[in-house]
């Protein structure tokens, strides 16, 4: 059944001249049929280089929107419109406009996990893999960082001489990790390095041997000699980790590290998306141009 659907999708993809991209948090069967699997930064960059007319984006809404902002002439399809990101909804453009007035000299750094409208209100975007270098690159001494307080706090711990004002958003998946859980696993696997995503809370990050985006965690795991590695991010990364390191054991910090939104997309949805060409992602042109400026400024770094 899975193979049949995958076969149908591969055929349809050719007929429709479509490219399928997937985030590392998608289910394994989706990652298997994708032309590109990557983290948010890699997928943003790839979106600009895709030759096909249509991009089927297996991820959440802000990611498909980012692809549309960067590639306005492509048809960008999000198979499940309800696949959103709760953190992206924790900041609205109206709220951001109000807070910006309180900090007229601050530059706004916006994590890509945000709506097109919020990106349009921002000076520059960042992802979890480049937040520190983006902030270091800015001349402004005061930074308003939206919406992820934990990525912002991690970046603040890595940069000098900047006043970083944090928005109070967070990822509902990474935020739930507790220090006791981590200490318990650390005790069980004392020699295993701990690799975590910067969306985790500071009391998790401070125990980590490495902090990075999903792609950075995957790269790091390849170069580590130890055979057991503790992972503090969404379970979808385990697919690539195991494929690339068949002789290593990966221990997830919690069984609850599942992003329900990322798991909404199924093979049936992808097949239907190709057949019906739904749901098309569109961004108002005025908003798109402003958001594009913030994204392009990040990409050009
Ligand atoms: P990265 O793709 O930058 O690792 O971010 C993870 C994430 O939470 C995406 O929603
Ligand atoms: Fe949003 Fe967190 Fe899911 Fe990423 S993992 S899409 S930040 S809820």
TrEMBL record:
<keyword id="KW-0963">Cytoplasm</keyword>
<keyword id="KW-0662">Pyridine nucleotide biosynthesis</keyword>
<feature type="binding site">
    <location>
        <begin position="111"/>
        <end position="113"/>
    </location>
    <ligand>
        <name>iminosuccinate</name>
    </ligand>
</feature>
<dbReference type="InterPro" id="IPR003473">
    <property type="entry name" value="NadA"/>
</dbReference>
<feature type="binding site">
    <location>
        <position position="85"/>
    </location>
    <ligand>
        <name>[4Fe-4S] cluster</name>
    </ligand>
</feature>
<feature type="binding site">
    <location>
        <position position="259"/>
    </location>
    <ligand>
        <name>[4Fe-4S] cluster</name>
    </ligand>
</feature>
<comment type="pathway">
    <text>Cofactor biosynthesis; NAD(+) biosynthesis; quinolinate from iminoaspartate: step 1/1.</text>
</comment>
<dbReference type="GO" id="GO:0034628">
    <property type="term" value="P:'de novo' NAD+ biosynthetic process from L-aspartate"/>
</dbReference>
<feature type="binding site">
    <location>
        <position position="128"/>
    </location>
    <ligand>
        <name>iminosuccinate</name>
    </ligand>
</feature>
<dbReference type="GO" id="GO:0005829">
    <property type="term" value="C:cytosol"/>
</dbReference>
<dbReference type="Pfam" id="PF02445">
    <property type="entry name" value="NadA"/>
</dbReference>
<keyword id="KW-0808">Transferase</keyword>
<feature type="binding site">
    <location>
        <position position="214"/>
    </location>
    <ligand>
        <name>iminosuccinate</name>
    </ligand>
</feature>
<feature type="binding site">
    <location>
        <position position="171"/>
    </location>
    <ligand>
        <name>[4Fe-4S] cluster</name>
    </ligand>
</feature>
<dbReference type="GO" id="GO:0008987">
    <property type="term" value="F:quinolinate synthetase A activity"/>
</dbReference>
<dbReference type="InterPro" id="IPR023066">
    <property type="entry name" value="Quinolinate_synth_type2"/>
</dbReference>
<protein>
    <recommendedName>
        <fullName>Quinolinate synthase</fullName>
        <ecNumber>2.5.1.72</ecNumber>
    </recommendedName>
</protein>
<feature type="binding site">
    <location>
        <begin position="197"/>
        <end position="199"/>
    </location>
    <ligand>
        <name>iminosuccinate</name>
    </ligand>
</feature>
<feature type="binding site">
    <location>
        <position position="23"/>
    </location>
    <ligand>
        <name>iminosuccinate</name>
    </ligand>
</feature>
<dbReference type="InterPro" id="IPR036094">
    <property type="entry name" value="NadA_sf"/>
</dbReference>
<keyword id="KW-0004">4Fe-4S</keyword>
<feature type="binding site">
    <location>
        <position position="40"/>
    </location>
    <ligand>
        <name>iminosuccinate</name>
    </ligand>
</feature>
<comment type="function">
    <text>Catalyzes the condensation of iminoaspartate with dihydroxyacetone phosphate to form quinolinate.</text>
</comment>
<dbReference type="GO" id="GO:0051539">
    <property type="term" value="F:4 iron, 4 sulfur cluster binding"/>
</dbReference>
<keyword id="KW-0411">Iron-sulfur</keyword>
<comment type="similarity">
    <text>Belongs to the quinolinate synthase family. Type 2 subfamily.</text>
</comment>
<dbReference type="GO" id="GO:0046872">
    <property type="term" value="F:metal ion binding"/>
</dbReference>
<keyword id="KW-0408">Iron</keyword>
<keyword id="KW-0479">Metal-binding</keyword>
């Amino acid at each position: 059944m899975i193979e049949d659907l995958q076969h149908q999708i591969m055929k349809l993809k050719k007929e429709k001249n479509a490219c399928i991209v997937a985030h590392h948090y998608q289910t394994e069967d989706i990652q298997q049929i994708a032309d590109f699997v990557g983290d948010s930064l890699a997928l943003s960059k790839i979106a600009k280089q895709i030759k096909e007319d249509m991009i089927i984006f297996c991820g959440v809404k802000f990611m498909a929107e980012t692809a549309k902002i960067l590639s306005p002439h492509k048809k960008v399809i999000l198979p499940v419109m309800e696949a959103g990101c709760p953190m992206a909804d924790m900041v609205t453009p109206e709220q951001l406009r109000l807070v910006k007035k309180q900090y007229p000299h601050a530059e706004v750094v916006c994590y890509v996990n945000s709506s097109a409208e919020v990106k349009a209100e921002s000076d520059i975007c960042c992802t979890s893999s480049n937040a520190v270098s983006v902030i270091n690159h800015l001349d402004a001494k005061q930074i308003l960082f939206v919406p992820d307080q934990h990525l912002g706090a991690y970046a603040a711990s890595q940069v000098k001489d900047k006043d970083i004002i944090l928005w109070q958003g967070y990822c509902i998946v990474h935020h739930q990790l507790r220090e006791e859980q981590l200490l318990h696993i650390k005790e069980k696997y004392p020699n295993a390095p701990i690799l975590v995503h910067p969306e985790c809370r500071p009391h998790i990050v401070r125990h980590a041997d490495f902090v990075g985006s999903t792609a950075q965690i995957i790269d790091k795991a390849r170069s580590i000699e130890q055979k057991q590695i503790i992972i503090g991010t969404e379970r979808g990364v385990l697919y690539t980790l195991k494929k690339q390191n068949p002789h290593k054991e990966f221990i997830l910090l919690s069984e609850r590290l599942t992003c329900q939104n990322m798991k909404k997309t199924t093979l049936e949805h992808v097949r239907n998306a190709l057949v019906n060409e739904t749901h098309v992602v569109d961004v108002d042109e005025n908003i798109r141009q402003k958001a594009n400026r913030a994204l392009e400024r990040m990409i050009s770094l």
